[in-house]
Amino acid sequence: MILGLPILVFVHVVISLIAIVAGLPVVRAFLGNRISSWTPAFLLFTVLTTLTGFVLFDGLTPAFFTGLISTAVLAAALYAFYGKGLVGPWRWIYVVSAMAAFYLNCFVLVVQSFLKIAPLHALAPTGGEPPFAAAQGVVLVAFIVFGWLSVKRFRGPAL
C-alpha cells in the first residue's frame, strides 16, 4: 500500500496524472499550429492509463465502457499520428481523437476527485448533485471549445 492505496491503483493514478499533465502542452501546441514535443509522452501515458484501468477490471461498470471508448479513440489517434503521419484528413482525425482521449482522462479525474476527496465528496456524495454536474459541465464545455479551436487552428506539417 502507498498512501492508503493498493500499489497497482497508486501506479494507475500516477500514470493518469502524468497523461493529463502531458496533455496540456499538446493542446497548447494544437492552438499554436504546431506539434508538441510532449505528444509521444501524452500518447504513451494515455494508453498506459487505459491499459492499467482494464487490469483493475471490476465488472461491466461505467469505468469499463469509458476504457473501451478511450481505446477506440486512442487507436484512431495513434494511427493518424504514427500510421498516416497527419496527412490530409488525418490531421483533424488526430486532433479530435487526441482531444477525446484527453477529455476522457479529465472526465475520470473529476469523477474520482468527487469520490475520493472528502470536501468534494461531501458536496456530491452520489455523483448526481449539482456541484458534480457543474464540474463535469465546465470540463465538457472547455473541451468542446478547445477542441473546436484546435481543429480550426491545427494545420501543422505532416510528419
The helix content is over 70%
Q: Which whole number gives the mean pLDDT?
A: 93
* Secondary-structure-derived class: mainly alpha
Q: Mind telling me the C-alpha Rg?
A: 16 Å
Please tally the β strands and state the result.
Answer: 0
Written description of the protein model:
This protein is mostly helical and 159 residues long. The chain has one domain. It has six helices and no strands. Helix 2 packs antiparallel against helix 3 and helix 3 packs antiparallel against helix 4. 24% of the residues are buried. The model has no long low-confidence stretch (mean pLDDT 93).
Please describe the topology of this protein:
Blueprint: H1 7-31, H2 39-55, H3 62-83, H4 90-116, H5 118-123, H6 130-153
Helix pairs in contact: 1-2, 1-4, 2-3, 3-4, 4-6
Outline of the structure:
The protein contains 6 helices and no strands.
Main attributes of the structure:
0% strand, 159 residues, 76% helix, single chain, mainly alpha, globular
